[in-house]
Prior knowledge:
Belongs to the copper transporter (Ctr) (TC 1.A.56) family. SLC31A subfamily. This is Copper transport protein. InterPro entries: Cop_transporter (IPR007274). This protein is mainly α. It has a domain at 24-58 and 77-125. The chain has three helices and no strands.
Amino acid sequence: MMHMTLYWGIKVTLLFDSWKTDSCFSYLLSLLACFLFSAFYQYLEDRRIRFKAIAVSNPPQQPAPVNAPLLTPKRRASSAKFATALLFGINSAIGYLLMLAIMSFNGGVFLAIVLGLTVGYVLFRSGDEEVVVVDNTCACA
């Protein structure tokens, strides 16, 4: 029977029927896997943001703008854009798997994932905050 409230116990089924814990050792290994997987999620998010910055900083030469509002010039694909899209897909899949693991409603799994996301953010993404200077003071711009 699936739990519908937060519970604290060592018997948990994570993501697959074959991933069941029945001892303290297997439970702790599962918590460690959840912690590492969520920290890895933050690492991949950092890589994706850096690839996106590379793709934006080196835009391909575009032809003169077209006056028709619905026509946009074709953009060439770059390896940085492809890497960004690939990392976005992988990161989305990992995010959904982490969400499904939390939906086991086990308190230890919840804490391991939140702690892993926090530690991963501190290790890999805490330097992401950059000051953005806006020339236009209008809030709607």
